[in-house]
Amino acid sequence: MKEKKFNFKEKKWPFISIILILLFILWHIISPNGALKYYFIREQLDESLAKNEILEKENNALREDINKLKNDPLYIEKIAREKYGMIKKNEILYKIKKK
Asked: Does 97 fall in a domain?
């Protein structure tokens, strides 16, 4: 029996095709518009969406405070007493120092 030797000339096209396909895949991964760039942009988008959600919650809380300050006299009194130490007529404010 004759032993068949690998003849590169006969098997050239499948080998070249595989190399070209691998190069094509590699190019799509590392190219300027490839998968890696998509991955990093996707991460940035997710971070931005999370920040937007936090800011939206803060904005809603501020809108609620504004609404209370415009329409709720008891809330205004509470803020004046807590933040600014204001008192009513004939009230005495005692400040206690902690040791």
From this structure: no
**CA separation for the pair 15, 21 (Å, rounded):** 10
Q: What is the dihedral of CA 36, 38, 39, 41, to 10 degrees?
A: 120
Cα separation, 76 vs 60, whole angstroms: 19
Residue 78 domain-assigned (yes or no): yes
pLDDT in tens, 23-81: 888 877 777 777 778 888 999 999 999 999 999 999 999 999 999 999 999 999 999 98
Q: Directed axis angle between helix 12-30 and helix 35-71, to 10°? A: 20
Q: Tell me the CB-side half-sphere exposure of residue 51, using CA atoms within 13 A.
A: 6
How many independent structural domains does the chain possess? 1
Q: Is 17 helix (H, G, I), strand (E, B) or coil?
A: helix
Q: Is the pTM of this model over 0.85?
A: no
